[in-house]
């Protein structure tokens, strides 16, 4: 979630990416800001980078991951 915030995604975009409602995304983003003591998304992203939370980073988007073939179930 924080990677998506740091990538500049809106709550609506985060919700679509993670298959959750925009309201749920908003609550999670608010909780992240609170835990980091950040007043804004930009400040949260800066603190995350300062704390090196993204050093062993996975991509901010899952769109590069291959999707399972039609009619198959993952895992």
Helix content: 40-55%
Residue-averaged pLDDT, rounded?
Answer: 83
Radius of gyration: 14 Å
The count of β-strands is: 0
Architecture overview:
By secondary structure, the chain is mostly helical. The protein is built from four helices and no strands. It has helices at 2-6, 11-18, 22-36, 41-50. Helix 2 (11-18) packs across helix 3. It is globular and about 30 Å long. The model is unreliable at 64-70 (pLDDT under 50).
What order do the helices and strands come in, and which of them pair?
Layout: H1 2-6, H2 11-18, H3 22-36, H4 41-50
Helix pairs in contact: 2-3, 3-4
Key terms for this structure?
about 80 residues, 4 helices
Summarize this, please?
This protein is mostly helical and 75 residues long. The protein has helices spanning 2-6, 11-18, 22-36, 41-50.
């Amino acid at each position: 979630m924080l990677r998506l915030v740091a990538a500049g995604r809106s709550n609506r975009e985060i919700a679509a990416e993670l298959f959750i409602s925009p309201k749920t995304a908003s609550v999670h983003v608010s909780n992240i800001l609170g835990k980091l003591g950040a007043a804004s998304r930009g400040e949260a992203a800066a603190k995350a980078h300062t704390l090196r939370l993204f050093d062993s980073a996975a991509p901010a988007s899952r769109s590069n991951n291959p999707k399972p073939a039609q009619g198959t179930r993952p895992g």
